[in-house]
Amino acid sequence: MLEIESKRSVFKAKTIWFSDYPFDVENCSRIVFRECKNDVDLKGFTKQEFTTLVIDLTQELDQIWNNMSRTACRQPINKAIKDGVVVKFNKNHDEFYEIDKQFRKTKGIDAYPISAEFMKKYGTVFTAEYDNEVIGGECYLEDKDNIRSLIGSTKRLEVGNEKARQMGNATKLLFWEAIKYAKEKGIKEFDLGGYYTENNPDPQKERINAFKNSFGGHLVTHYIYEKDYSKIYKLTRNVYKIIKYRFRCKKI
Predict the structure, then answer these.
(1) Cβ atoms of residues 87 and 173 within 8 Å
(2) DSSP state of 39
(3) DSSP H or E stretch at residue 73
(4) Rounded to 5, what percent of the chain is helix, strand, coil?
(5) Is 180 helix (H, G, I), strand (E, B) or coil?
(6) Where are the alpha helices (DSSP H) in the chain?
(7) CB within 8 Å of 43: residues ≥ 6 apart
């Protein structure tokens, strides 16, 4: 398990990743369990299903490689290596944070609620460099048995089509290096960080699905469990959500 604690004023919240089951936690205003593998009903907890793609890392590395799409994955990885893309491990946190912030701003989506300091403390970060410039990165969370893609972005929205394709290849190389890293550590499962399963067509999310499918893996259902121990904290959080939603609507 990976336990992450956060504080807001007098309130303390915890997020626990990769637990098999949810459980009650003392001295806490709110608890969230993410990527639970078992479906249970526990008093006071809300439950939400979460579909994702998982690669079985107990396979031989050659088998994992061969399960990946030749044209959509293996060839782009080899092309990135040939082009001279260099992958760095747990470096360039601040540069990657700025890339992700700009990427989301350009796409008109909310910034992901983690900082560079969060990534340094809890994350496993892979960044891609080309001609000594950081062009993208991926941040993962892990424990002894699981590694999960959390955020990833590149500078592809800031460049022309040819460089954007190169950055797409670099992203696939980042995933491959993370897979090799996790395999070497004895981690058992590589979670690609979610999979869109809604019936409503969404071309952007479907393109992300295609990207993830190129790595092989199989669909699984995990669960998110949440419980509020403090009614005041719950009320404050709900008011904040309403204000944030109204502010977003005004901007539109």
Answers:
(1) yes
(2) -
(3) none
(4) 40, 30, 30
(5) helix
(6) 61-67, 75-83, 93-107, 116-122, 161-185, 203-213, 231-251
(7) none
Residue range of the domain that includes 144:
59-216
Pairing relation of β-strands 218-228 and 46-56? antiparallel
Map tokens 């604690």 to a residue.
5
Which two three-digit tokens encode residue 126? 């892979």
From the list 147, 149, 174, the residue with the least C-alpha distance to 73 is 174
Q: What is the pTM of this model?
A: 0.90
Contact 178, 148 (CB under 8 A): no
Cα(89)–Cα(248) distance, integer angstroms: 36
Is there a single domain that holds both residue 33 and residue 157?
no
Q: Which two tokens stand for residue 218?
A: 């199989």
CB 62 within 8 A of CB 47: no
Residue with tokens 């092989």: 216
Residues 33 and 69 in one domain: no
pLDDT digits (tens, 9 = 90+) for 134-185: 999 999 999 999 999 999 999 998 888 888 999 999 999 999 999 999 999 9
Give me the residue label for tokens 């946190």.
Answer: 93
What are the pLDDT digits (tens) for 197-237?
998 989 989 999 999 999 999 999 999 999 999 888 888 77
Same-domain status, 6 and 110:
no
